[in-house]
Amino acid sequence: MNRIKKLVLVVFSIAFVQQVNAQDAPASFADLAERLMPSVVNISTTTTLTTNGNPFPGFKFPPGSPFEDMFKEFGTPQTRKSAALGSGFIIDEKGIIITNNHVIQDAEDIVVRVGGDKEYKATIIGADPLSDIAVLQIDSKEKFIPVKFGNSDKARIGDWVIAIGNPFGLGGTVTAGIISARNRSIGLSRYEDYIQTDASINSGNSGGPLFDMNGDVVGINTAILGKGGSIGIGFSIPSNNAKKVVDQLIEFGETKRGWLGVRIQVVTKEIADVEKLNEARGALVASVAEKSPSDKAGIKAGDIILEFNGNKINEMKELPIIVAQTEVGKIVDVKIWRNRKEINKKIKLGRLETSEDFKVKKIPADADKETLEISEIKSLKIIARLLNKQDIEKRKLPNQTTGLVITNIGKNSPVNYLNIGDVIVEAQKKKIKSVKDLEDIVNKALKSNQKTILIVIYNSQNQRRYIGVKLD
Q: Is this structure's pTM higher than 0.90?
């Protein structure tokens, strides 16, 4: 009997401890929001855009034509002011602000609003397009109320969070939700390890903070997945990743990232089988830059990097993040798989920003600057965004090209043989001008007996290709 009583007591104690440790839903976020609101700012920027008003681009009238003078004025470049909105948060009483790079990119004037009514000019201390982070300084001698970064590594799926920002210019907006997922990659920047949240995030929330229940910043709200508004899928840069970039921007005005000098790709099950690796893991070296740290250390194309500086590489995408966060000049141990056996190498890291490999990938300037928006096309199991003028100019595509840039491809996608960055420009011989255009064509084909559609893409070499896609 005594043993039964003891067992019941132990079970009851365990249940009681679990109940105490479980985090109940807050009765109200009001006290927390009231404390944090003074540290969140609204950001507005002004940019000058130059456009060519010629209605017949690339066409010239013959000399002496009566239409030459009539249309000459249309060819004169036109300038106009463009305004954008975003959010940010104060991390120092001297007025240092953190926001997204794409919020202030190419801005000529930056104005921040604090407390809902006071406006100040701000200048850029440093900006990093690769991580999409920028640091601003308020031009004022006043003291401000800062917030601090929390430990995003301790943030768990299911934890309560609140977002405060400036959606659609409606400053001081508070939304609440939970952390929905961790370690998300959506194809927007080079170093991606997003926190996913269902706290409502809309246009204008970019650069704003994602707070935990202690009032610490665990993320910087950056992107949404949707079609014009929040559908409960938002993405935030983890605070631990952001803080390393912020500290460098404040100290040096630029970033100093570690550099290996290799091009890598995913280790598939098929590759693992051929290489007699026990499972598909690590990062496959596709090529090695000449005279790079890896080249000097004897790394070769075909090697599989299994471990870097004591960190196991389970997925290819983990390696660039870990390398970038490692001190420049540090000598690190790297474990590689070559000729069906493990080999150890020592590599002295270079600096990415001074390497030939370094190419700043700007967030498109005429994308939604307030909050980057990407769209999921479920029928094709891909994520894409609209092609924009900067893409066309950078890739030297025909001026009138329209289409969708692929930013992510699902493993079971019927187009999983395409690549991130490929541009879908036509489907069933119809130009693609929006996500809806492609969705309508695919859905129409799915409802009919025709289960294969013809699409046209531009690949990374800007080669136009016709692709037959068999739909599920």
A: no
